[in-house]
Structures are given as C-alpha cells and as structure tokens.
Amino acid sequence: MTGDMKLLYDVKSIRGGYVAFAGDKGGYITGEGMISNGIVSFDKINFVQQLDHNLLSVSQICDKQFSVHFDANGCYVLKPGFKIPKEWILLSAPRINDLYVLDMSQAITTSAQATCFVSKATEKDTISWHRRMDVCVSCQKGKQTKKKHPTKKINTVAVPLERLHMDLFGPVKHKSIRGDQYCLVITDDYSRFSWVAFMAHKSETFGIIKNLIIQIENLYKLKVRRIRSDNGTEFKNHAMAEFCTSKGILHEFSAAYTPQQNGVAERKNRTLIETARTMLVESQLPIPFWTEAVASACYTLNRVLTVKRHNKTCF
Q: Cα–Cα distance between 271 and 85 in angstroms, integer?
C-alpha cells in the first residue's frame, strides 16, 4: 500500500474500502497498480492518497511464494523455494489470521536443543511481581501530579477594595534591626495596590489587619467586601471570624496546599522579595535591613505602571 502514485504503473481506478490510520485519520483506496525494482514485481498494490508512508505486508509477500528474512542490518525478500534448515530453527511462530503469533510454551523446537526458561506463572503471581517491582494499578495514584492552573484574564471585581488578597511570609532566618521576622502583604484585587506590615510574632496579624481595614475604609470612603487568604491560623481564627461578621466581610479561604488559589498574594510576595533582595545586593547593606528594602520595594511598585488594564499606576 502506498500514497505515492509515481511508484506505480499499470494503475487502474477502483473504489476500495476505507483505511484507518493512527490519530483518527484515514483515507479510501482509489487505485491499484504494480510496483517493481527491476528484479522483482508485485501486483495489486493499493493506492491511498492520504498515506504518508509506504506499507509492505510480510504475509502477502509470503503468499506469493517469496520468503522474508530479518537480521541486524535489514530485511531481505528471498527467491521462491528458499528453505531454512531445521537445525537452524530455534523458535517457530505460526501464522494466524495474517499475524505471526509466538507462543513461548509451544514455540521451542526440540531439534534445536535450545535452553530457555518459559514462564508458568499464574495471573495472581504476575500481579504480585508487578507490585513488587513498583509497577501496578497504584502507580498512577502514586505518580499523579497537581493539575495545572492556567492564568485567566477575567476581571472579577469592579471597584477598589472589593477584594483584598492577604499572605504572610516568615519567619525569616535573619531578624530585622527592630527584631521583626514576619511580613504581612495585603493586595487590592482591583488596583493591585499593596500594603506591607512587619511584626516580630505572627500573632500580631489580626490586629494589623483590623486597623488597616478600618483605616483604608475611612480614607477612601469605600467598603472592603471580601478578603482572601490561606488557611493559616493567623487568618483562620475566632477573632478574625468575629471581625469579618461584624463588618459584613466575606472571608474566602484557598484550598489546603493549593497556593495557586491565592495567586495574587503569592505573586506579590515573590515580586517584593526579589526586588528587595536586588536592592540589598546593589546597596551592599546587611540582611537585617530587609524590612526597609521590602517597604521601599512596595512603595516603588505602587507607583510604577504595573496594571495595564487601567493604563495607570496602582497609586
């Protein structure tokens, strides 16, 4: 079977059947011809225009009384009448429905005096070895990974302060010059304006959030409607729940061990840390000045054009 009409001669048009390829592709047999290399010729070669590669059937070649031999260098079509000496035969695979089926329990010929091991294991034994070699049904469960979280360009808020994203990073290895080792980052979903606050203990988180929300609501004459955070105890506690209830704020929590659901805060954390680290390297200041560097990075990022959808700065 071929898809190259140039290889054929004495071609005649036919309406043959449909040939299916891999990947839900296929084509119809529209012609039939002969092919020759000057030494041997084959007839009834089907033409399928959509076929990208030529196909050669070993069983059909054998039907024409030829023999086919394979070795490490290639495949050879031998003249009719060629026979292999019995003493050369080690395995035999009978032809069944145009397929050569090798049954190891029956294929060994006694005349060859071949020595090999034939598996007599039952299905139960096979599964046991399958599990011992760490290849079993549980493999898929053990090797599965998290599903990707592609970015979606969807505006879910309409006004500033409608949703605030919060995250806390720390404790850092080196305390600041004032003894701080935690940093709270709060980002407005609409404008991407951010606030940072530093603390020595993460138990101070609630007080800082409470004061900040009251302050920005009075300052901008807008109301905080929703806040989103992870499930850390600094966010998920009785005091925070009571405050949100009293203010009518909906507190959204990301799923456990899924930082992608709090992506705005996580991305802001990384941006601030990378910018602050760069500032410390450039200024050659010691690491305890990291709070000043983070605060400076936040101040700068709030005043550069980072939100393209508004064509203006966060500030």
A: 76
Is residue 313 within 8 A of residue 302, CB to CB? The reply is yes
CB 180 within 8 A of CB 198: yes
Residue 149 is assigned to a structural domain of this protein: no
Looking up residue 187, the CATH number of its domain turns out to be 3.30.420.10
- 118 shares a domain with 76: no
Task: Tell me, yes or no, whether 257 and 290 share the same domain.
Answer: yes
Whether residue 201 sits in one domain with residue 178: yes
pTM reported for the whole predicted model: 0.54
CA distance 119 to 134: 20
What is the longest distance spanned by two Cα atoms in the chain? 101
- Per-residue model confidence as pLDDT tens for the chain (315 residues): 888 888 888 888 888 888 888 777 888 888 999 888 888 888 888 888 888 888 888 888 888 888 888 888 998 888 888 888 888 888 888 888 878 887 776 655 454 444 555 555 566 666 676 666 666 667 667 767 777 766 666 667 889 999 999 999 989 999 999 999 999 999 999 888 999 999 999 999 999 999 999 999 999 999 999 999 999 999 999 999 999 999 999 999 998 888 888 889 999 999 999 999 999 999 999 999 999 999 999 999 998 876 556 667 776
| Joined tokens for residue 208 | 């800082």
| Among the listed residues 154, 172, 103, 133, the one whose alpha carbon sits nearest the alpha carbon of residue 263 | 154
| 205 and 250 fall within a common domain | yes
Q: Which residues pair with 5 in a beta bridge?
A: none
Same domain for 206 and 277, yes or no, is yes
H helix intervals, 136-262 = 138-143, 205-220, 238-247
122 in the same domain as 183: no
Same domain, 93 and 132: yes
What is the tally of structural domains in the chain?
Answer: 3
Structure tokens at 229: 């955070």
Q: Are 163 and 189 in contact (CB under 8 A)?
A: yes
Give the range of the structural domain holding residue 131, as residue numbers without chain letter: 85-143
